[in-house]
């Protein structure tokens, strides 16, 4: 068959799956940045920065977005270097319903960990100060405008 035969193949959104809890050498993390080439940056529940590798089984089949909760596994064959992000493999991406169930079971905290990258991406305005002395500036502008008369300007002068 042609192309029409493959339509609707990935219709698994409504399908429920068994909830998978973390095991040994596994942890929950939130995606903070998509890096490309099957890699992404994440922050673990403990607050550690992670560099996540999307396994070949999941590439082009499971779509990951910033803010998704994922289950990652530590790489046994790599040694952790100091001052670098740990390399881990992506095992599962949880949907919103599964994330709320994990919260209910106490597997993940109710509050997401804070990051410098996340605050900048979300547009947090906590560091921006606004000048609230607008009334004083408006009064001085209106006084200056009252001193100028319309007959002082000619359209030809412009």
Structure description:
It contains three helices and five strands, in the order βββββααα. With 158 residues, it is of the alpha+beta class. Strand 1 and strand 2 form a beta hairpin. The longest helix is centred in the C-terminal third of the chain and has 14 residues, at 134-147. The protein starts with 25 loop residues before the first strand and ends in an 11-residue tail after the last helix.
Features:
158 residues, 3 helices, elongated, five-stranded mixed barrel, alpha+beta, 19% helix, 5 strands
Quick rundown:
The protein is an alpha+beta fold. The chain has 3 helices and 5 strands, in the order βββββααα.
**Which geometry do the CA atoms define?**
elongated
Question: Can you tell me the residue ranges where pLDDT is under 50 for at least 5 consecutive residues?
Answer: 118-125
State the helical fraction: 10-25%
What number is the mean pLDDT? 77
Report how far apart the termini are: 73 Å
Strand arrangement across the biggest beta sheet: 1-2-3-5-4
What is the element string, with H for helices and E for strands? EEEEEHHH
**Number of helices, counting only DSSP H or I runs of 4 residues or more:** 3
Largest sheet: 5 strands, mixed, barrel
CA-atom Rg in angstroms: 27 Å
Structural class: alpha+beta
Q: Give the total of beta strands.
A: 5
Share in β-strands:
15-25%
């Amino acid at each position: 068959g042609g192309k029409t035969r493959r339509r609707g193949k990935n219709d698994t959104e409504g399908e429920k799956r068994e909830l998978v809890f973390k095991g040994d050498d596994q942890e929950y993390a939130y995606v903070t940045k998509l890096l490309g080439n099957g890699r992404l940056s994440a922050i673990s529940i403990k607050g550690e920065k992670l560099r996540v590798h999307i396994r070949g089984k999941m590439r082009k089949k499971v779509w990951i977005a910033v803010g998704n909760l994922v289950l990652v596994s530590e790489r046994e064959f790599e040694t952790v270097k100091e001052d670098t992000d740990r390399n881990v493999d992506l095992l599962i991406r949880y949907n919103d319903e599964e994330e709320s169930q994990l919260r209910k079971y106490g597997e993940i905290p109710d509050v997401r960990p804070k990051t410098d990258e996340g605050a900048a991406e979300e547009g947090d305005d906590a560091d921006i100060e606004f000048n609230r002395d607008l009334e004083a500036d408006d009064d001085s502008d209106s006084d200056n405008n009252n001193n100028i008369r319309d007959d002082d300007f000619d359209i030809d002068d412009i």
